[in-house]
Amino acid sequence: MAMKLSYKYNKRPLRFIYIFYWFLLSYILAALIFWFVALNQQNSELAFYRIDILKTSDVTYDNQIKQIEKEKNRKTAQYAGEGITFFMLIIAGAVFVFRIINKQLMQSAQQQNFMMAVTHELKTPIAVTKLNLETMQKRKLEEAQQQKLISSTIQEANRLNALCNNMLLVSQIDTGGYIFTKEIFDLGSLALNCENDFESRFPLRKFSTQIDGSMIVNGDQFLVELAINNLLDNAMKYSGKDSVVMLKVFKEDSDIKLQVIDEGKGIPQAEQPKVFEKFYRGQQRQTKGTGLGLYLTKTIIRQHNGDIVVKNNIPQGCIFEMKFKAA
């Protein structure tokens, strides 16, 4: 049995860092305000002292007072200008540092969750495969039972292979190590092959296909196939076993669109823009996955000068729509 892992991480160090950061920023701003008040007060006292020692009988008394007041105002403006400049620089630096720290901390948390998810995703097919092989080795099973265990083992091997492919491709694409190839192929036929493969691997699930004729595109057929498989797998994971997963390919103006439609719980509106981010799991952390599938799918579509969006399915579920330029 695969070990159940938790995706929670310790938030105490994160909270301490934020508290210390805001305390330090508040201290710096308070010191800046104190510096301005002290200098301005010192400037006023100096002006008052200079006026106090003047002789009222001096014919230039009024002019000297005006000169002192003028210098006082100039100093006040100088301190205010310097204070505002330092304040803006501190705020700009604080925002920049905060965004850097926040990004690093969030990436660290996401990578920690990713490693835990990958460990879980790797252990499950390995454990199932081992159990199936040990069962066939130790027991004399009927042909039907053997075929069922072999089919289950092949499914887990395919799942493990897909996970490894996703991880390797993400690494290669992010580092620029993957060379994209361009070829002319029929997107409708490719989508139909993907759907047929899922039907054979998951005979208990319901699939529906609607392909409006030949849909010729130019791109990397292997990557596009991987993107379609990711969307189909995603639709299966987040919808009920009795619901239908629909695959549609159609032409709209000069674009060719591919839609994968499920009848699951759907994705909250606030989360929809984030589901394509690397490692993002959102509220679906209890469902198996690594947070790489949709990120990789969007990367693949963008490399083909296309686009991918997610929208709500009525009455429930999601529609993932990929858009390509017709060849």
Salient structural properties:
single chain, 327 residues, five-stranded mixed beta sheet, two-stranded antiparallel sheet, 13% strand, disordered N terminus, 6 helices, alpha+beta, 7 strands
Q: What shape does the CA trace take? A: elongated
Q: Structural class, please? A: alpha+beta
Walk across the major sheet and give the strand order. 2-4-5-7-6
Low-confidence runs: 1-9
Task: Report the total helices.
Answer: 6
Order of helices and strands: HHHEHEEHEEHEE
* Fraction of helical residues: 55-70%
How many DSSP-defined strands? 7
Q: What proportion of the residues form beta strands (DSSP E)?
A: 5-15%
Q: Describe the sheet with the most strands.
A: 5 strands, mixed
- Measured on Cα atoms, how large is the radius of gyration? 33 Å
End-to-end span in angstroms?
A: 48 Å
Kindly state the mean pLDDT as a whole number? 81
Task: Characterise the protein shown here.
This protein is of the alpha+beta class and 327 residues long. It has six helices and seven strands; from the N terminus they run αααβαββαββαββ. The protein has helices at residues 12-52, 61-138, 143-174, 187-201, 221-237, 293-303, and strands at residues 183-186, 206-211, 216-219, 244-252, 255-261, 307-312, 318-325. The two termini are 48 Å apart. The model is unreliable at 1-9 (pLDDT under 50).
